[in-house]
Structure of N-(5'-phosphoribosyl)anthranilate isomerase:
Amino acid sequence: MQRTRIKICGLTRPEDVAAAVSAGADALGFVFYPKSPRFVTAAQAAAMMSAVPPFVSTVGLFVNASPAEVAAVTHIAPVSQLQFHGDETAQQCAALAASANRPFLRVFRVRPDTRGADLLEYENEYRAASPLFSGLLLDTFVDAYGGAGKVFDWSIVPKDIAPRVVLSGGLSVQNATDAVVRVRPYAVDISSGVEQQKGIKDAHKIAAFVQAVRVADATSESENHHERST
Ligand SMILES: O=C(O)c1ccccc1NCC(=O)[C@H](O)[C@H](O)COP(=O)(O)O
Protein backbone atom coordinates (compact mmCIF):
# COMPACT_ATOMS: atom_id res chain seq x y z
CA MET A 1 0.00 0.00 0.00
CA GLN A 2 1.28 3.48 -0.84
CA ARG A 3 1.97 5.37 2.37
CA THR A 4 1.62 9.09 1.69
CA ARG A 5 4.30 10.93 3.63
CA ILE A 6 3.11 13.63 6.03
CA LYS A 7 4.84 16.87 6.99
CA ILE A 8 3.53 19.05 9.80
CA CYS A 9 4.83 22.58 9.32
CA GLY A 10 5.18 25.66 11.50
CA LEU A 11 5.97 23.95 14.81
CA THR A 12 6.83 26.33 17.63
CA ARG A 13 6.38 24.27 20.82
CA PRO A 14 7.98 21.05 22.08
CA GLU A 15 4.55 19.61 22.88
CA ASP A 16 3.47 20.13 19.26
CA VAL A 17 6.61 18.35 18.02
CA ALA A 18 5.76 15.46 20.37
CA ALA A 19 2.16 15.39 19.12
CA ALA A 20 3.27 15.30 15.47
CA VAL A 21 5.79 12.51 16.12
CA SER A 22 3.35 10.47 18.14
CA ALA A 23 0.68 10.81 15.43
CA GLY A 24 3.16 9.38 12.90
CA ALA A 25 4.39 12.45 11.00
CA ASP A 26 7.34 11.78 8.68
CA ALA A 27 8.65 15.34 8.63
CA LEU A 28 8.50 18.40 10.86
CA GLY A 29 8.77 21.96 9.53
CA PHE A 30 10.34 24.92 11.33
CA VAL A 31 9.82 28.44 9.98
CA PHE A 32 12.90 30.66 9.98
CA TYR A 33 11.13 33.62 8.38
CA PRO A 34 11.16 36.43 10.95
CA LYS A 35 7.89 37.97 9.72
CA SER A 36 5.93 34.75 10.29
CA PRO A 37 3.74 34.23 13.35
CA ARG A 38 5.33 30.75 13.39
CA PHE A 39 8.91 32.02 13.41
CA VAL A 40 11.36 30.18 15.66
CA THR A 41 14.99 30.97 16.32
CA ALA A 42 17.68 28.45 15.43
CA ALA A 43 18.26 27.79 19.14
CA GLN A 44 14.55 27.13 19.78
CA ALA A 45 14.39 24.79 16.79
CA ALA A 46 17.56 22.97 17.88
CA ALA A 47 16.08 22.40 21.34
CA MET A 48 12.89 20.98 19.82
CA MET A 49 14.86 18.82 17.37
CA SER A 50 16.85 17.20 20.15
CA ALA A 51 13.67 15.26 21.06
CA VAL A 52 12.97 14.06 17.50
CA PRO A 53 13.51 10.29 17.09
CA PRO A 54 15.55 8.71 14.27
CA PHE A 55 14.04 8.55 10.79
CA VAL A 56 11.84 11.64 11.23
CA SER A 57 13.03 14.47 8.94
CA THR A 58 13.32 18.06 10.02
CA VAL A 59 12.81 20.82 7.46
CA GLY A 60 14.00 24.42 7.75
CA LEU A 61 11.75 26.88 5.89
CA PHE A 62 13.25 30.11 4.51
CA VAL A 63 11.83 33.06 2.58
CA ASN A 64 14.34 35.10 0.54
CA ALA A 65 17.08 34.47 3.11
CA SER A 66 20.71 35.36 2.48
CA PRO A 67 23.45 32.69 2.49
CA ALA A 68 24.62 34.09 5.86
CA GLU A 69 21.13 33.72 7.35
CA VAL A 70 20.79 30.12 6.13
CA ALA A 71 24.28 29.29 7.41
CA ALA A 72 23.57 30.88 10.79
CA VAL A 73 20.53 28.62 11.21
CA THR A 74 22.04 25.40 9.89
CA HIS A 75 25.11 25.75 12.13
CA ILE A 76 22.84 25.59 15.16
CA ALA A 77 19.72 23.67 14.11
CA PRO A 78 20.45 20.26 12.50
CA VAL A 79 17.69 20.38 9.88
CA SER A 80 17.80 17.49 7.44
CA GLN A 81 16.60 19.61 4.58
CA LEU A 82 15.72 23.13 3.47
CA GLN A 83 12.49 24.52 2.03
CA PHE A 84 12.67 27.70 -0.06
CA HIS A 85 9.32 29.45 0.05
CA GLY A 86 10.11 32.88 -1.41
CA ASP A 87 11.14 34.37 -4.75
CA GLU A 88 14.58 32.76 -4.91
CA THR A 89 15.77 31.77 -8.39
CA ALA A 90 16.86 28.22 -9.20
CA GLN A 91 20.48 29.37 -9.10
CA GLN A 92 20.01 31.04 -5.70
CA CYS A 93 18.35 27.91 -4.27
CA ALA A 94 21.17 25.78 -5.66
CA ALA A 95 23.82 28.02 -4.10
CA LEU A 96 22.06 28.24 -0.70
CA ALA A 97 21.62 24.46 -0.57
CA ALA A 98 25.23 23.84 -1.62
CA SER A 99 26.60 26.20 1.00
CA ALA A 100 24.46 24.56 3.70
CA ASN A 101 25.17 21.09 2.23
CA ARG A 102 21.53 20.07 2.51
CA PRO A 103 18.90 18.90 -0.02
CA PHE A 104 16.06 21.32 -0.62
CA LEU A 105 12.37 21.46 -1.46
CA ARG A 106 11.29 24.23 -3.80
CA VAL A 107 7.85 25.72 -3.26
CA PHE A 108 5.74 26.44 -6.32
CA ARG A 109 2.99 28.86 -5.41
CA VAL A 110 0.05 27.92 -7.63
CA ARG A 111 -1.95 30.80 -9.12
CA PRO A 112 -5.42 30.62 -10.71
CA ASP A 113 -3.83 30.65 -14.19
CA THR A 114 -1.12 28.02 -13.45
CA ARG A 115 -1.18 25.08 -15.87
CA GLY A 116 0.14 21.56 -15.34
CA ALA A 117 2.87 22.20 -17.91
CA ASP A 118 4.19 25.07 -15.74
CA LEU A 119 4.84 22.62 -12.90
CA LEU A 120 6.73 20.22 -15.16
CA GLU A 121 8.81 23.04 -16.61
CA TYR A 122 9.61 24.41 -13.16
CA GLU A 123 10.60 20.98 -11.90
CA ASN A 124 12.92 20.48 -14.89
CA GLU A 125 14.54 23.87 -14.28
CA TYR A 126 15.31 23.01 -10.65
CA ARG A 127 16.44 19.47 -11.42
CA ALA A 128 18.89 20.89 -13.94
CA ALA A 129 20.09 23.56 -11.51
CA SER A 130 21.08 21.34 -8.60
CA PRO A 131 21.62 17.72 -7.54
CA LEU A 132 20.39 18.84 -4.11
CA PHE A 133 16.88 19.55 -5.43
CA SER A 134 14.63 16.99 -3.75
CA GLY A 135 11.24 18.00 -5.15
CA LEU A 136 8.43 20.50 -5.51
CA LEU A 137 6.05 21.50 -2.77
CA LEU A 138 2.84 22.93 -4.21
CA ASP A 139 1.20 25.68 -2.21
CA THR A 140 -1.46 28.25 -3.06
CA PHE A 141 -0.31 31.70 -4.14
CA VAL A 142 -1.25 34.38 -1.61
CA ASP A 143 0.21 37.86 -1.17
CA ALA A 144 1.83 36.84 2.09
CA TYR A 145 4.18 33.88 1.67
CA GLY A 146 2.46 30.84 3.13
CA GLY A 147 0.67 29.04 5.90
CA ALA A 148 -2.50 30.82 4.76
CA GLY A 149 -4.89 27.86 4.63
CA LYS A 150 -5.97 28.45 1.01
CA VAL A 151 -6.67 25.57 -1.40
CA PHE A 152 -5.78 25.62 -5.12
CA ASP A 153 -7.40 23.68 -7.94
CA TRP A 154 -5.90 20.20 -7.47
CA SER A 155 -7.01 19.12 -10.96
CA ILE A 156 -4.11 21.05 -12.53
CA VAL A 157 -1.52 18.63 -11.04
CA PRO A 158 -0.43 16.33 -13.90
CA LYS A 159 -0.66 12.60 -13.14
CA ASP A 160 2.99 12.08 -14.09
CA ILE A 161 4.29 14.61 -11.56
CA ALA A 162 1.88 13.78 -8.69
CA PRO A 163 3.89 10.83 -7.29
CA ARG A 164 6.85 13.17 -6.76
CA VAL A 165 5.20 16.28 -5.28
CA VAL A 166 4.36 17.49 -1.81
CA LEU A 167 0.78 18.78 -1.83
CA SER A 168 -0.06 21.65 0.51
CA GLY A 169 -2.22 24.74 0.77
CA GLY A 170 -5.38 24.71 2.84
CA LEU A 171 -5.33 21.02 3.69
CA SER A 172 -7.44 20.08 6.69
CA VAL A 173 -8.94 17.13 8.53
CA GLN A 174 -12.05 17.61 6.38
CA ASN A 175 -10.45 17.65 2.91
CA ALA A 176 -7.33 15.47 3.41
CA THR A 177 -8.87 12.18 2.31
CA ASP A 178 -10.35 13.73 -0.82
CA ALA A 179 -7.09 15.54 -1.65
CA VAL A 180 -4.96 12.41 -1.38
CA VAL A 181 -7.40 10.17 -3.27
CA ARG A 182 -7.71 12.72 -6.09
CA VAL A 183 -4.09 13.86 -6.45
CA ARG A 184 -2.14 10.87 -5.08
CA PRO A 185 0.86 12.98 -4.13
CA TYR A 186 4.09 11.64 -2.66
CA ALA A 187 3.48 13.67 0.48
CA VAL A 188 1.19 16.23 2.07
CA ASP A 189 2.12 19.27 4.14
CA ILE A 190 -0.14 21.09 6.58
CA SER A 191 0.16 24.02 8.95
CA SER A 192 -2.88 26.19 9.68
CA GLY A 193 -5.34 23.28 9.27
CA VAL A 194 -4.01 21.62 12.44
CA GLU A 195 -3.81 24.78 14.57
CA GLN A 196 -5.85 26.15 17.46
CA GLN A 197 -4.44 29.58 16.65
CA LYS A 198 -1.49 30.80 14.56
CA GLY A 199 1.64 28.93 15.65
CA ILE A 200 -0.16 26.79 18.23
CA LYS A 201 -0.94 23.30 17.02
CA ASP A 202 -3.82 21.09 18.15
CA ALA A 203 -2.80 17.49 18.95
CA HIS A 204 -6.28 16.12 18.18
CA LYS A 205 -6.34 17.79 14.77
CA ILE A 206 -2.86 16.46 13.98
CA ALA A 207 -3.92 12.90 14.86
CA ALA A 208 -7.18 13.26 12.88
CA PHE A 209 -5.29 14.61 9.85
CA VAL A 210 -2.87 11.67 9.87
CA GLN A 211 -5.82 9.30 10.16
CA ALA A 212 -7.60 11.00 7.23
CA VAL A 213 -4.50 10.53 5.06
CA ARG A 214 -4.32 6.85 6.02
CA VAL A 215 -7.97 6.40 5.06
CA ALA A 216 -7.08 7.87 1.65
CA ASP A 217 -4.13 5.48 1.31
CA ALA A 218 -6.42 2.52 1.99
CA THR A 219 -9.04 3.85 -0.45
CA SER A 220 -6.43 4.34 -3.20
CA GLU A 221 -5.13 0.82 -2.58
CA SER A 222 -8.57 -0.71 -2.93
CA GLU A 223 -9.21 1.37 -6.11
CA ASN A 224 -5.89 0.11 -7.54
CA HIS A 225 -6.82 -3.46 -6.66
CA HIS A 226 -10.21 -3.05 -8.34
CA GLU A 227 -8.57 -1.56 -11.49
CA ARG A 228 -6.09 -4.47 -11.65
CA SER A 229 -8.79 -7.11 -11.34
CA THR A 230 -11.20 -5.73 -13.97
O1 LIG B 1 3.77 29.27 8.16
C1 LIG B 1 4.12 30.41 7.87
O2 LIG B 1 3.87 31.38 8.58
C2 LIG B 1 4.87 30.65 6.60
C3 LIG B 1 5.44 31.88 6.39
C4 LIG B 1 6.12 32.12 5.22
C5 LIG B 1 6.22 31.15 4.26
C6 LIG B 1 5.65 29.92 4.47
C7 LIG B 1 4.97 29.66 5.63
N1 LIG B 1 4.37 28.44 5.85
C8 LIG B 1 4.32 27.43 4.86
C9 LIG B 1 3.65 26.21 5.35
O3 LIG B 1 3.47 26.02 6.50
C10 LIG B 1 3.21 25.20 4.42
O4 LIG B 1 4.34 24.74 3.70
C11 LIG B 1 2.14 25.58 3.46
O5 LIG B 1 2.15 26.94 3.18
C12 LIG B 1 0.78 25.14 3.89
O6 LIG B 1 0.24 25.95 4.82
P1 LIG B 1 -1.31 25.81 5.20
O7 LIG B 1 -2.13 26.24 4.02
O8 LIG B 1 -1.49 26.71 6.36
O9 LIG B 1 -1.54 24.38 5.57
About this structure: Helices lie at 14-23, 42-49, 67-76, 90-100, 116-129, 176-183, 203-228. The chain has one domain: 5-228.
